[in-house]
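If you are new to this repository, start here. Below is one unmodified record pulled from the training split, so you can see the exact layout before writing a loader.
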Amino acid sequence: MAEVIVATIEVTETSPNSFSVTVHGSQVTTHQVSVKPDYARQLLTTPHTINDLVAASFDFLLDRESNSSILRSFDLSVIERYFPEYPKAISRYLK
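And here is the target side for that same chain:
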């Protein structure tokens, strides 16, 4: 049986609308993510922040691929190009 590895996600805002995300999984990866405020507003529900959205987006991605497969640098809107269900599914990942 395959070992299930629970990833830990650390999100740090590095500048307005830019985030560094470190994922501790089977290996440690670091990602640079930009988020356009208008795009974030479309996806967020109160009381969540853009930090929450970025972390939830990585939870979403990790359900579909390993952290080593996630792009190292991307704009959050790119996720729906690969996973069209992302905009509708993300609300289930916001904690």
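Two things worth knowing about this chain: The first strand starts at residue 8 and ends at 15. The mean pLDDT is 93.
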